[in-house]
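Hi,

Apologies if this is the wrong queue. I'm a grad student, and the batch job for DNA-binding protein from Paracoccus tibetensis produced an output file that my downstream script rejects. I'm not sure whether the problem is my script or the file. Here is the sequence I used:
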Amino acid sequence: MKSHDEIWSEWQDLVNMPPSALKKWLESDESQSVGDTGGNGESTGHKSGKRILEIKGKKKTDLDDEDWAHMGKVVGYIKRHLAQGGPEKEKEHSDWRYSLMNWGHDPLG
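Support response: The file is valid. Your script probably expects a header line. Output copied below for reference.
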């Protein structure tokens, strides 16, 4: 299990979208067009993006165990998704990029 310092460091590197950009992205049709909804109408990634905004609004010293757990989940998701490499062409408008952006990472940013 990673320490809070390890999670924090990876989070700072991987969650590269500023809160204002992430908020605007989450309001877009493209953001809401990707991901597994599990039949609930909102994708896991879109829900995660809203949670990321909550976490980014806190100081490191104010983060609780649920925040740290979600941050670890976000870091793991971004790393796994980046390892897939995405499409060779049209990355800018790909579901791969859109999904990553829901999780706070713009691979082109």
